[in-house]
Automatic annotation (TrEMBL), chain A:
<comment type="subunit">
    <text>The complex is composed of two ATP-binding proteins (UgpC), two transmembrane proteins (UgpA and UgpE) and a solute-binding protein (UgpB).</text>
</comment>
<feature type="domain" description="ABC transmembrane type-1">
    <location>
        <begin position="62"/>
        <end position="255"/>
    </location>
</feature>
<feature type="transmembrane region" description="Helical">
    <location>
        <begin position="61"/>
        <end position="85"/>
    </location>
</feature>
<feature type="transmembrane region" description="Helical">
    <location>
        <begin position="130"/>
        <end position="151"/>
    </location>
</feature>
<feature type="transmembrane region" description="Helical">
    <location>
        <begin position="172"/>
        <end position="194"/>
    </location>
</feature>
<keyword id="KW-1003">Cell membrane</keyword>
<comment type="function">
    <text>Part of the ABC transporter complex UgpBAEC involved in sn-glycerol-3-phosphate (G3P) import. Probably responsible for the translocation of the substrate across the membrane.</text>
</comment>
<feature type="transmembrane region" description="Helical">
    <location>
        <begin position="7"/>
        <end position="28"/>
    </location>
</feature>
<keyword id="KW-0997">Cell inner membrane</keyword>
UniProtKB/TrEMBL annotation, chain B:
<dbReference type="InterPro" id="IPR035906">
    <property type="entry name" value="MetI-like_sf"/>
</dbReference>
<keyword id="KW-0762">Sugar transport</keyword>
<feature type="transmembrane region" description="Helical">
    <location>
        <begin position="7"/>
        <end position="28"/>
    </location>
</feature>
<keyword id="KW-0472">Membrane</keyword>
<keyword id="KW-0813">Transport</keyword>
<feature type="transmembrane region" description="Helical">
    <location>
        <begin position="65"/>
        <end position="91"/>
    </location>
</feature>
<dbReference type="InterPro" id="IPR051393">
    <property type="entry name" value="ABC_transporter_permease"/>
</dbReference>
<feature type="transmembrane region" description="Helical">
    <location>
        <begin position="103"/>
        <end position="124"/>
    </location>
</feature>
<dbReference type="Pfam" id="PF00528">
    <property type="entry name" value="BPD_transp_1"/>
</dbReference>
Amino acid sequence: MKPENPILAGLALVAGLLFLSPVLYSIWMSFQTVDAYYAGQLGFTLDNYARAVGQYNFARYLLNSLIVSGLVTLIGITFATMAAYAFARYSFRGGNFLFAATVATLMIPSHISLIPNYLTLAKVGLLDSYAGLILPAISNGFAAFFLRQYIRGIPKALDEAAYMDGATSLQVLWRIIVPLSRPAIASMALYIFITEWNNYIWPLVAVGKQDLYTLQIGLARLYRINPGEGLIDWPLVMAASTITILPVLLGFLLVERHLVRGITMGAVK
Amino acid sequence: MLRKLTPYLFVAPLMIFIALFTYIPILASLNLSFREWNFLSPDMPFVGFRNYEQLLASRDLWNSLWVTTLFAVLSVPLRLGLALVIANYLVRESMHVRLLRGALFLPSVTSTVSIAVVFSWVFSTDYGMVNAILGTFGLGKVQWLQNPHLALWVLIFVNTWKQIGYDIVIYIAGLQAIPRELYDAAAVDGGKRLHMFRRITMPLVMPTTYFLLIISVIEAFQVFTIVNVMTKGGPAGATDMLVNLLYEIGFVLFDIGRGSALAVLLFILLVGLAILKSRIIGRKVHYEA
């Protein structure tokens, strides 16, 4: 790395802050009392968060989002890794066809399945349930494709050595492939988690019961029902918005490099 | 026997769920698009192409197609052009560049609903950030989201703000793959920076541009969240994009047949675009370094 030019560094900092200013300001606003906000004064409070979490049920929405995104990630990454392993290491009848069908899902607009999936889940009574939120999201063609490419880069000699020692294919997957693919699996898990966390249209149609709202639905509803009479209670809405952003924001700060690498690996390869 | 079954067992969970929630629904949509059903009535009579005829005869569909195309045609070049210029600057390695990259990338992983809500405030008429800034210059208040001529531009702005970091990151990866010697050689020949950008950078980063073009056009045709939160398709249909119309027909009016017909049309349109573009790409892009 070259030594820093302090002027450039300062400019970059200002540009970054300016770019993010709407979000930064919304976080700032979430700590204002509504009266102070509309009067253009300062008044620090945590009351907006207390109301969002208590009266407006955002603790529950946060829990729902964590459960749904967590399970989708766990199941989704397991399915994708298993399939990727088979696609990368076995040649079997219909294997190419199934792989093509997996890759083709990347081109298929997800909205075509909206109405049929709604009807299917209604028929089996899974609307308004965690299962209804989770099941349509656990098959991730992109993750399977990406992991298959990655696993193909792992030397096959490692598998063969393990088979010589009497390992089963499941052991090879678990003891050799998974540990060696850890960076790829981590980026894909992150990708699935973020996608599901931010998912909006499916929970919007699949859930009517308030106790099952995810954060996204809860926030959109809170903004739309307009809790301030006449004037929108923006500080309250922004507190809810901050709660919705925060987990991904924290995760982002922890693993930014990982995430960026994963995304570019997928795109450029 | 078991050995032969092994790969099938490994792919089975993924394939079953892909079949259940991606492929069978395509056929189901096709089937439903030829029927009349409101989700409640006990039978769903076959009505031939009537749903399609009604759709194609409705002003809503053509309005949505127009609005969505406009959104794509305006927002995609804006995104990619800006992203390439910024990436060209951010491709070097230093601490402040990394920070700026992080700041630009952040919105693309942030909740779209949150962003839509925050920008609903930013562009709100009475207490919004934009009108406050305009006010300090003595300019009057603008009704950004209530004016049919402006609302779509606001959505384009918000979408660009959210997605550009992703484009930049992808472009940076593409730029890093261009051999340095090309620039060195051009510099020896006395090449100007703008000249180098046009003659070396732009053609050599073409594969990345095509990749981003595909993704962002397909994305633009499926924009829904910011529409649903910020404008609900209004004012007067000015932001009523295709997926919003699909949502309205399918889940507000519960006209399952017509909604499915629209889904099928959207599907044909997007898969058609994808195939068309893979043809073009197959012919034009041979710049892999």
